[in-house]
Design brief:
single chain; alpha+beta; UDP-n-acetylglucosamine1-carboxyvinyl-transferase, Chain; 4-stranded mixed beta sheet; 12 helices; 23 strands; binds shikimate-3-phosphate
């Protein structure tokens, strides 16, 4: 199979458009596919993200007997109720590149009638599954062979019991897997969690009408859920993904004399760490037209090109609210005045690629001084007048969509001649990425290369 490589130089001056929209939110899209399947009837989801990660979730639910039809921009899912999934012997479910699908699906299969094999692509096979295996075993779910990475095999016990558990990683994937398993018990599950994105909590309460309580106490979220309740069927319109919007926010910020409005983006406080961080660094990003949609705040984001960006020393407790945006934050730090410091970023090296290592590698490649600190921290010496002239090649990055898209933004914002491999990987999360760049006026050249490079 031939694959594509892209060539980018700085070629974007005044944007051809001042208003764009981005694809639907990935976290919400995957959750809505999984949870509508357990609901009590026909659900419609508009503006579902049609990315590879979400399509992996769709094909898994179809294998579990759920009818899903995607027509134009509406996805129709016929829920079969909390215990209605069709389990068969020798079922193999492939999550592709999607960590969220792999982890949440384990919660959904916590009561599986037969052994189910869950697998994924080469990148996902390297990621840790212990974080969900350990607590799911407390519910009674069984796992074969003590495996901690995909493929794993799991099945349910006779009766799933509610649990009490402390989720220390600040992982929304882990928390959500446990919340879904909790639904299948006949009792009260109590979770103490380091805060992370809270879409599952909001969907449980505002969309599915489930008895869930969330209390914030001493830097933790205490979540209690009563299981064995019906999930109400629903209609939903997915807002834009702040993680996708962030590439265009940073491009605008680092370009000259541009402004951009990104319409209808989810601005859940647990996701907008990037906006808060960029504003602390001197960006003046505005939130306009704010509305509340089924518990999720949605708004337009307005950003202008900004000179005089300044370094930041980020408090680690804010990391999880910008967990998918650190490559972009590093990029902005590399052209900000002063020395930026980030700490406790071990989770970054557990993503689709070793993202902390990739961030450091890209910055060093473009001549930025970076020092690694104890406990997965970094110090970045910014160069406000950085103008790149050399050739830069980005390859062998485990097809990590966020590495690919960050490198493309670096090329358009900072100059140089960039050659970036694995062109199609952005389809994992943001299929409209290249067409949106083209809309703004970027010219991107592409060429095929043989699959062995
Ligand atoms: C996600 C949670 C995050 C994030 C991922 C999506 C989710 O992972 O990195 O892209 O939808 O719950 P962790 O919760 O494991 O940090």
């Amino acid at each position: 199979m031939n694959k594509k490589i892209i060539f980018i130089k700085k070629n974007i001056n005044t944007f051809k458009k001042q208003s764009i929209s981005v694809d639907g939110d990935k976290s919400l899209s995957i959750r809505l596919i999984l949870l509508s399947s357990l609901s009590d009837g026909k659900c419609n989801v508009k503006n579902l993200l049609m990315s590879e990660d979400v399509l992996s979730a769709v094909s898994i639910m179809k294998k579990l007997g759920i009818k899903i039809r995607i027509k134009k921009k509406v996805c129709e899912i016929i829920g079969r109720g909390l215990f209605g999934l069709k389990f068969k012997k020798n079922l193999i479910l492939d999550s592709g590149n999607s960590g969220t699908t792999a982890r949440l699906i384990c919660g959904l299969l916590s009561d599986a009638k037969y052994w189910v094999k869950i697998t994924g692509d080469n990148s996902l096979k390297k990621r840790d599954m212990r974080r969900i295996i350990k607590p799911l075993k407390l519910f009674g779910t069984k796992f074969k062979n003590n495996r901690t990475k995909l493929p794993i095999y799991l099945r349910g016990p006779e009766i799933l019991k509610p649990i009490k558990y402390f989720e220390k990683l600040g992982s929304a994937q882990c928390k959500s897997a446990l919340m879904i398993a909790a639904l299948k018990t006949s009792g009260k599950t109590e979770l103490r969690c380091v805060p992370s994105r809270n879409h599952t909590e909001i969907i449980f309460k505002k969309v599915l009408n489930l008895p869930i309580k969330v209390k914030k106490k001493k830097n933790y979220d205490f979540i209690s859920i009563l299981g064995n309740k019906k999930l109400k069927k629903f209609n939903y319109k997915v807002p834009g993904d702040i993680s996708s919007a962030s590439f265009f926010i940073v491009l605008t910020l680092l370009s000259k004399n541009n402004f951009l409005r990104i319409k209808n983006v989810n601005i859940n406080p647990s996701r907008i760490g990037i906006l808060n961080i960029l504003n602390l660094m001197g960006a003046k990003i505005k939130i306009l037209n704010k509305k509340l949609y089924k518990g999720e705040p949605v708004a337009d984001i307005f950003v202008k090109s900004t000179k005089n960006l300044k370094a930041i020393k980020l408090k680690p407790k804010l990391n999880s609210f910008a967990i998918d945006e650190f490559l972009l934050i590093f990029l902005v730090s590399s052209v900000s005045k002063g020395v930026s410091t980030f700490r406790n970023l071990s989770e970054l090296n557990k993503k689709e690629s070793k993202r902390l290592d990739w961030g450091i590698k890209i910055l060093r490649m473009i001549g930025i001084k970076v020092k690694t600190l104890k406990n997965n921290g970094v110090k970045i010496w910014g160069q406000p007048n950085l103008k790149l002239k050399k050739e830069y090649v980005i390859k062998n990055f485990s097809r990590d969509h966020r590495v690919f898209m960050t490198a493309a933004i670096a090329a358009l914002a900072l100059g140089g001649s960039w050659k970036i491999y694995d062109r199609d990987c952005f389809k994992t999360s943001f299929p409209k990425f290249i067409t949106t760049l083209n809309l703004l006026g970027a010219k991107i050249n592409e060429k095929n290369y043989s699959s062995r490079y």
